[in-house]
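Technical annex, item 7. During the second reporting period the consortium partners agreed on a shared format for inverse folding records so that results from different sites could be compared directly. Each record opens with the tokenized structure and is followed by the designed sequence. A conforming record, contributed by the partner at site C, is shown below for reference.
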């Protein structure tokens, strides 16, 4: 495994809650794993392995990178969230201090790993080998403007990949196939309660559109080469965990700005009741899409 983590501006939200560390931990410990079936399905289709040099845009706290690295891939991650990136570093580079150690004392599996705090994506490996797979596992199509930062990030990343490299974009499936869509409508309703308006349209929940992923591909000059759908049910131990996990996504930020966090938590908890089972767990079936493109 040769992980690299890079910090880069990919649609950073200046209005994030004050306790960003708590939200990042909620994402890593509760919510991120909900997308694991999506990671596995994409990696199976792309035959990710030792020959893969992957760039993960919006890598979050690193679970998708960890799964790819476990398959033998060389992985590089980029994210604008400092707290999530710190958690990814702890997962992927627990011995980060080895960079300054003598060469003979470094673990052989980590000799080609790098940790770049700032700047854009860099080639994987000391030999400057280009990427052959670029992934975007932060699903788009559920909030207005959620792809605005993605197009320029892709334009910057594609030149670092080999000609004909694969780019995989991911997004939410049709609202009628996503139980969570009904809960996310709470975010839109609360965001509209601000009078006078204290929140902008960008970041506000909206129904997923059929061609969200194709629109991003067209804007960045990528050629679609297949697609797929993956079942990603959201399962939580209880309503409290579900509320924390969902709020960690950032999809409720506009609602929090328009009202307050306690009101958002209360109304999300109420919206979750139809999905709570007799044992107290919460279960919401969802479908996510992925679009395979070539550069």
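Designed sequence (site C submission):
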């Amino acid at each position: 495994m040769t992980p690299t983590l890079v910090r880069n501006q990919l649609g950073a939200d200046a209005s994030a809650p004050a306790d960003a560390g708590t939200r990042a931990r909620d994402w890593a410990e509760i919510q991120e794993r909900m997308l694991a079936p999506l990671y596995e399905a994409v990696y199976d289709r792309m035959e990710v392995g030792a020959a893969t040099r992957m760039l993960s845009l919006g890598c979050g706290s690193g679970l998708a990178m960890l799964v790819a690295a476990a398959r033998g891939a060389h992985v590089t991650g980029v994210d604008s969230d400092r707290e999530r990136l710190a958690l990814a570093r702890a997962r992927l580079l627990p011995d980060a201090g080895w960079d300054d150690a003598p060469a003979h004392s470094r673990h052989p599996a980590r000799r080609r790993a790098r940790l770049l705090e700032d700047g854009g994506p860099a080639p994987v490996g000391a030999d400057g080998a280009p990427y052959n797979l670029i992934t975007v596992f932060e699903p788009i199509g559920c909030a207005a403007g959620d792809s605005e930062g993605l197009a320029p990030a892709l334009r910057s990343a594609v030149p670092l990949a080999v000609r004909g490299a694969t780019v995989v974009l991911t997004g939410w499936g049709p609202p009628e196939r996503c139980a969570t869509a009904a809960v996310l409508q709470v975010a839109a309703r609360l965001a509209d309660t601000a009078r006078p308006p204290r929140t902008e349209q960008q970041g506000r929940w909206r129904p997923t559109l059929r061609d969200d992923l194709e629109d991003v591909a067209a804007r960045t000059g990528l050629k679609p080469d297949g697609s797929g759908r993956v079942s990603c049910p959201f399962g939580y131990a209880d309503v409290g965990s579900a509320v924390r996990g969902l709020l960690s996504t950032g999809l409720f930020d506009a609602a929090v700005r328009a009202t307050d966090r306690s009101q958002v938590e209360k109304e999300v908890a109420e919206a979750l009741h139809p999905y709570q089972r007799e044992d107290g767990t919460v279960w919401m079936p969802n479908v996510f899409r992925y679009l395979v493109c070539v550069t």
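The beta strands are 2-7, 53-57, 74-79, 114-116, 131-140, 161-172, 223-231, 234-236, 282-284, 287-294. Residues 20-31 form the longest helix (12 residues). All partners now use this format for quarterly exchanges.
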